[in-house]
Structures are given as C-alpha cells and as structure tokens.
Amino acid sequence: MEIHSFPENNSKGQELTNSTESLTATEGGSITLPCTAHNISDKKVFWFQTEGYPIFVLNESQTADDRFELGRSNGDDWGLQIHDVTEWDAGTYRCLLNTKPVQMKTLHLTVLIPAKINKTMSSTSMNVFEGEDVELYCDVRGNPEPLVRWIRNDESVAVGKNLSLYDVTCESSGTYTCTASNNVGKTAYHDIQVAVCTNAAEETHHRNEGFAFILFFWCIKDIFISSA
After folding, report:
1. I need a surface site. Which of 53, 56, 98, 110 has the fewest CB within 10 A?
2. What is the mean pLDDT of the chain?
3. What does pTM read for this prediction?
C-alpha cells in the first residue's frame, strides 16, 4: 500500500490510491503481505483479516496467534508477516489507514496445499471372491485440486478418486496404487492389496462351515444321550 504525503497538504493527512493485490503462499511456509505508509503523522495503520477483529494496530498485536508479526524493515514498512502458513490463513486482508475517508489496500491470499491422502478414510487391503464387484476409494485433498491416478503393474488404469473393478477374477489380484499430485510438494501414494479367492476356495469355506455345524450337532446330541 502506497500512502503519499504532500507538503502543501500535510495538515490534511495522507493520500492513498485504493488498490487490490493477489498473493500466493504454500502451506507450512512464510509470506509477507506488503503495506507501505509514508509519514503517517498521528494516524494509525490497522491490519484486518476478512471482516474480523484487527490483527495489528500500529506496532501492537491484537491476536494471540504469534505466527503473525509486522516485518518493519524501515519506518514506512508496515508489511504483515505470516509464518507456518495454514489453509485457514487463506482469505482477504486489509491494510487500513484511519484517515477521513478511510484509505486501505486489499490483499487476497491463496494458500497452496500439497496433495495428501487420508489413508484412514481410504480403502484398505481386502480379500474378495471371484465374480464380485470391488470399489476402491482414495480420500485426497489439496489446493489446487490434485490429479488422482490408479496404477497397477506400472500402468495407469484409471483417473479419479474411485476405481471400480467388476466381476473380478484371479488375474485381478495385485497391488493397486493411488497417486495424487498437484505440482505443490511431492506426489502422495497409497497402496491397496486386493486378493481374489477362487470359487473353489469359497466352496471349501462353506463345506468347512457345514462340517463344523454337523460336528457341533453331534456333540450336543451325545451330551443329551449321556445325561439321559
């Protein structure tokens, strides 16, 4: 923000041409929101975030968040520094000089967030039977919106957060890797193992269940006969 004073008009305060600026920061990094005020005299410089309470009034912090500080390299510098930037820092900031009328500079901050995969909310390794349908899901976030791909045997098999496998066979078994990238930070990965059991294994499973039930029935029968 450039606030210019004119000697012949100094008693009337400073002059500011309203302006708007867009800035970008990366999550976890630092950024300075520029604001320059020349010869503010008895006026005060305020920093506001969106429509909330002031962050700074002159050199005095109005927030308990110590990530915010003034980066005053000289007497005219009223830049606002934000450290360890989070996604919640995105939004509109205003550097304001309390003249009449009020003069201010508006800054819009966008926070870039590397692609991240929430493995707790994503699909995990599973065992399924031949002929079943399988739905794999990858919970992804980031800004800008990450590109999500599914990789199997070093080949891309699908794009998007969901991967559908229909009427699976033994050949469907293997590792399915969800990748997410948005050119901010490193690519994120999540491996999901899918094991497809044959129908023969399923039949053996059911036969074993049936045998266990029959064995249980005969054991109960013997108990009643012995106690009779």
Report:
1. 53
2. 82
3. 0.73
